[in-house]
């Protein structure tokens, strides 16, 4: 059972061991240098915001880290294992989950069936996916659906959910394999303010209860500043700044390139 309440005593995050370490990540599409030599780290249990102007390379960097995009150069170590050459499914099995800018759920399946589809990230093959899930898996799905606040929609077709509920369901699916790191790509896009608050709460609960680290790619700066322990700013495919929300807020280069006047 996942405790929905936030503890007033969050675990300290300073000096946590490294969970993800990416060095020199580089990716071009034809002549477009989307990401150029970016170094990027996430500590155990850390929430890192990844921001920058449109086209600055955020989604490409995320895709490189989750191995959905083949990188041109660079090295990625996750939890002590070099995952640079692994395929996306293998990386997921190692403990990285993600959601996508364009939600990837199965609209013709129910909320419950979608949650169980999250097992795919644990490397469960198609044949096993068609078999009934074991008790522990069913309990995990029920707990996550309960946590995200829509147990009453458990038998609803996922295609009938609101945009915000779909994004929460995608998070349920990503959490099914008990990842140590989850990447959220534009998770607040098209989501109403109430559900954005819910999303923020659930991310914090999962972070606190299961020590899940998050990389949060966002244009919603208010969301990032209210949730991130650290913020990384990209500009034109390069790392512009990396620091605490306080440092980023007052960084002149970031203000000029991204936060604006
Ligand atoms: N599959 C692709 N083929 C060609 N160019 C691409 C591809 N994906 C991204 N790009 C280009 O790479 C650059 C970085 O794009 P990316 O989507 O990573 O930026 P972003 O910061 O996530 O942007 P946004 O905030 O608008 O989502 C852009 O110039 C984009 O047009």
UniProtKB/TrEMBL annotation:
InterPro entries xrefs: AAA+_ATPase (IPR003593), ABC_AA/LPS_Transport (IPR051120), ABC_transporter-like_ATP-bd (IPR003439), ABC_transporter-like_CS (IPR017871), BCA_ABC_TP_C (IPR032823), P-loop_NTPase (IPR027417)
GO CC terms in record: plasma membrane
This protein's UniProt keywords: ATP-binding, Cell membrane, Membrane, Nucleotide-binding, Transport
Cross-referenced CDD domains: ABC_Mj1267_LivG_branched
Residue ranges occupied by any ABC transporter domain in the UniProt entry: 20-261
Keyword Secreted attributed: no
Record-level Gene Ontology MF annotations: ATP binding; ATP hydrolysis activity
UniProt cross-references to PANTHER family, sorted A to Z: CONSERVED COMPONENT OF ABC TRANSPORTER FOR NATURAL AMINO ACIDS, CONSERVED COMPONENT OF ABC TRANSPORTER FOR NATURAL AMINO ACIDS-RELATED
Name used for this protein in its record: ABC transporter ATP-binding protein
């Amino acid at each position: 059972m996942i405790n929905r309440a936030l503890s007033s005593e969050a675990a300290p995050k300073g000096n946590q061991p490294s969970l993800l370490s990416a060095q020199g990540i580089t990716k071009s599409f034809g002549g477009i240098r989307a990401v150029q030599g970016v170094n990027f780290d996430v500590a155990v249990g850390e929430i890192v915001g990844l921001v920058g102007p449109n086209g600055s390379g955020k989604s490409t960097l995320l895709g490189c880290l989750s191995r959905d995009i083949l990188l041109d150069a660079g090295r990625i170590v996750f939890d002590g294992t070099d995952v640079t050459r692994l395929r996306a499914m293998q990386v997921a099995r190692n403990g990285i989950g993600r959601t996508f800018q364009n939600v990837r759920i199965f609209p013709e399946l129910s909320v419950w069936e979608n949650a169980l589809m999250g097992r795919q990230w644990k490397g469960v093959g198609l044949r096993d996916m068609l078999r009934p899930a074991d008790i522990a898996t069913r309990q995990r799905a029920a707990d996550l659906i309960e946590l995200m606040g829509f147990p009453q929609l458990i038998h609803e077709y996922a295609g009938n959910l609101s945009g915000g509920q779909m994004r929460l369901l995608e998070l349920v699916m990503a959490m099914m394999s008990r990842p140590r790191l989850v990447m959220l790509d534009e998770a607040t896009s098209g989501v109403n303010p109430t559900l954005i608050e819910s999303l923020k709460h659930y991310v914090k609960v999962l972070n606190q209860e299961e020590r899940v680290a998050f990389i949060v790619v966002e244009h919603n700066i208010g969301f990032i500043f209210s949730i991130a322990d650290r913020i990384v700013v990209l500009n034109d495919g390069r790392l512009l700044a990396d620091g605490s929300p306080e440092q980023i807020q007052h960084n002149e280069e970031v203000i000029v390139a991204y936060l604006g006047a």
